[in-house]
């Protein structure tokens, strides 16, 4: 049964491109994969999991304070989300340290993309913006099926 599930869903479970970007001494690595659809609502929702790794490649300790996401669906919907920290945390990263987290996003279309910025506070109390590289959200499900 598990083997059949894997065969039927391999393309959806495969990791897409891994995206990396370094800004102001912080390297952000992001990847996403399609989780499936939820059709209990009148409009089908497509779900993705994305994972982020933040790595301090600079020479000064930083602390994440805020995130801002831009989420764009192929249905021409754009949403901005701003909030404190990530997944309830404001990690402190000394030089060479990493922090990893995963979260979910849903769209009402079978494809879109996300990008954003993190606001970090350095140990000298200066604030820096760190770019989150854009990444695709692709379900490989035909819109006619949704």
- Parts with pLDDT < 50 across at least 5 consecutive residues: none
Tell me the radius of gyration.
17 Å
Helix count?
1
Determine the N-to-C terminus distance.
25 Å
Average pLDDT over all residues = 87
Largest sheet, in brief, is:
5 strands, antiparallel
Number of strands: 9
Order of helices and strands: HEEEEEEEEE
- Helix share of residues? under 10%
Shape: elongated
Query: How would you classify the helix and strand content by structural class?
Result: mainly beta
How large a portion of the residues is in β-strands, by DSSP E?
over 45%
Structure in words:
Helices cover 8% and strands 58% of the residues. It contains 1 helix and 9 strands. Strands 4, 5, 6, 8 and 9 form a 5-stranded antiparallel beta sheet that branches. The longest helix has 12 residues, at 2-13. By secondary structure, it is mainly beta. The mean pLDDT is 87. Strand 1 (19-23) and strand 2 form a beta hairpin. The chain has one helix spanning 2-13, and strands at 19-23, 26-38, 45-56, 62-73, 78-84, 92-93, 98-107, 111-122, 127-138.
Short description:
It contains 1 helix and 9 strands. The protein is mainly beta and 146 residues long.
What labels describe this entry?
146 residues; mainly beta; five-stranded antiparallel beta sheet; four-stranded antiparallel beta sheet; 9 strands; 8% helix; elongated
């Amino acid at each position: 049964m598990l083997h059949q599930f894997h065969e039927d869903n391999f393309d959806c479970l495969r990791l897409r491109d891994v995206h990396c970007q370094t800004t102001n001494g912080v390297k952000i690595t992001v990847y996403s994969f399609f989780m499936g659809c939820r059709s209990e609502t009148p409009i089908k929702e497509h779900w993705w999991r994305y994972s982020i790794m933040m790595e301090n490649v600079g020479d000064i300790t930083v602390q994440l304070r805020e995130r801002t996401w831009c989420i764009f669906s192929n249905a021409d919907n754009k949403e901005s989300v701003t909030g404190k920290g990530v997944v309830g945390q404001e990690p402190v990263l000394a030089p060479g340290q990493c922090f990893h987290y995963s979260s979910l996003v849903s769209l009402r279309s079978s494809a879109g993309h996300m990008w954003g910025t993190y606001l970090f506070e350095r140990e000298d109390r200066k604030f820096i913006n760190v770019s989150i590289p854009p990444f695709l959200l692709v379900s490989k499900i035909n819109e006619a099926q949704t």
